[in-house]
Amino acid sequence: MPICIQNELPVKNKLLEEGVVVIEENRAKNQDIRPLKILILNLMPKKEETERQLLRLLGNSPLQIKVEFLHTTSHVAKNTPQSYLEKFYKTFDEVQYSYYDGLIITGAPIEHLEFEDVNYWGELNQIFDWSKTHVFSTLNICWAAQASLYYHFGVKKEQVDDKIFGVFEHDVLIENHTLTRGFTDTFLAPHSRHTKIEEEKLPTISELDVLARSEEVGTLLAATKDLRKVFVTGHIEYDADTLHNEYVRDKNSNLPIEVPVNYYPGNDDTKTPKNRWRGVAYLFYHNWLNQVYQQTPYDLTELSK
Question: Which pathway does this chain act in (predicted)?
Answer without folding.
Answer: Amino-acid biosynthesis; L-methionine biosynthesis via de novo pathway; O-acetyl-L-homoserine from L-homoserine: step 1/1
